[in-house]
Amino acid sequence: MSFHPRMEYAPAKFHKSERTLAEQGGDFKYTPENQAKFDENVTHYPPEQRKSAILFALYLAQGQQGYLTAAAMQHVAQQIGCTAAEVEDVVTYYTMFYRTPVGKYVINVCRTLSCALLGAERVTEELSAALGIKPGETDPTGTFTLVEVECLGACDRAPVVMVNDEWHERLAPEQSAKLIADIRTKGAAAFTGCHLNKEAQQGAGARGTGDRGKGDRT
Amino acid sequence: MAYQRVLTQYINEPGSYTLDSYLKHQRGYEGLRKALTLKPGEIIDQVKASGLRGRGGAGFPTGMKWQFVLKDTPKPKYICCNADESEPGTFKDHVLMERNPHLLIEGCAIGCYAIGAKVAYIYIRGEFYHVQQILEAEIEKAYKAGYLGKNIFGSGFDCDVYVHRGAGAYEAGEETALIESLEGKRAQPRIKPPFPAVAGLYQCPTAVNNVETLCNVPLIIMNGPEWFSKLGPEKNGGPKLYCISGHVKKPGVYEAAMDTTLRELIYDERFAGGMMDERPMKAVIPGGSSVPLLLPDQLDIPASFDGVQKAGSLLGSAGLIVFNDSVCAVWLAMNLLHFYRHESCGKCTPCREGTDWLLKLLMRIERGEGQPKDLDLLFGVSNNIVGKTLCAFGDAAATPVLSTMKLFRDEYEAHIRAGACTLPAPWRAKHAMAGAH
Ligand SMILES: Cc1cc2nc3c(=O)[nH]c(=O)nc-3n(C[C@H](O)[C@H](O)[C@H](O)COP(=O)(O)O)c2cc1C
Ligand code: FES
Q1: ipTM
Q2: A212 part of a folded domain
């Protein structure tokens, strides 16, 4: 069965590849600290399997520079002992690597079902309005990037937002604008963190593990 | 008799994740000590006798999986612990690793001993960075205390456990894609056979096991296989974690035996405590987003692998997503297809192209621009994905469409007739999704 729409075939309409090359960027080299971390990490794998450390190597580069330039990928390729194209192949597959500059705070809103059932679509709308940008964009000051992501694995604390490596949970749409204001004034202290994480340290309550009291939801 | 929690009994205590707490409350590392006095084959026999079935989704017997791991080979062998936990509605491994990490570490070590491996990699999703930090710190402590490393308990057995961080890909949870990702490539599935048990990580014999699966292993060794198999119905023994989310009063992770019914899990005070605001339930997806929906009159079945399968769905990862009557079936399918379209790894054409077409069609119907022929199109596209892909992702992606069309076909038809969604709800975006991105 053919379900494709009728297509006009003319040279101008041919499908164009969307491959965009990463910007070259300035010279890139690991800091001695990162080099040491990388050298330790490759020892986790058999000596002939250095490529296994590629995700770790890319995280290090991204942490050092904020995003991945072609120069950074070339450096990673040298470290691993593979081609720059192989590195690019990996970088373009995984969603947590950025090939263009991102804001200081990358706000990842979970949009999958459990979060959406509790208003995640509206959270995105409110954040979008508060920041004046659409999902996928960075604000002009380079402070915030707004991204919609898929299930973060904490659906009992929906709607969930991940900001860089921090978590903010149960973000009601009505509180979304306030969260932005709070980040502006308080920085990372504005986040609730992962409840599990906090309670594991403090042993307070039992949120998210089944023993929650009534009315916790509101 | 009230069910006594074993996987999560102490997780609410302060410092439940520490080695001290594990040793004090849970007879920590006794399972490993005992395992090392047995022969590897005896451990596999015990796991087989317990009837432990994989908790990652497929419910395959773990003892058999370990037995299939090739023995007569000079190659090293590996355990890969699947901590990718990306199935929508699933968050149990998150809790286990964060609050009871030593149980997993002990499970990894026993698993290694059983199949003859010296290294276990825990492949954790990139978003769980906060969990990874806890896990790594506790692994470090296990090394210091002599539960990992060289010559454990003077038995001559060496074992290393490493955490490997993923970088955002649902498909990395599929076992061969996980192995590809661990090898430093794109997370795309391999053609099977050969199965990982023969040629897995670095083409060596490998067992891929879910976090919750491995956490059960020390308990089986310590308490015996009969204890395990007697917890719950036949062939569905052992403790089980259920993740309940959506429109319920108390969403969370709950531990129970598999003779508990779906109705109890959703309505009982011991578990999710009923529907939010007492609104009637429309349906539940019982096993993470990839399985067929069940209706409110189908809830009186044991929430076991076999029980849920008999009712026409699957237990999968035991992620129950419950929703009330304000939810539109077309919107629900659209939400999930957005997920599958985004996460399709692109290797198989039916899945890569099919999920895109399904989402476009669903968005068109949801926007009110659907045409009567679209229902046949949805059906046709779905059936051109099912069974035509390398891994189970394809079937999973078509399921929300086929299942909602089967149960709520009238809603699809109403959308097309009325040219709009008939169920606007307060939790939905004020402006409909402008376009797939
Ligand atoms: C698309 C896809 C995604 C999967 N994601 C996960 C996952 O996130 N976690 C998991 O444990 N198993 C996942 N699985 C199941 C694994 O392929 C595999 O069956 C499981 O890790 C085996 O472990 P078990 O026998 O202990 O269940 C996924 C399977 C598929 C097809
Ligand atoms: S659906 Fe948002 S965390 Fe799972």
Answers
A1: 0.94
A2: no
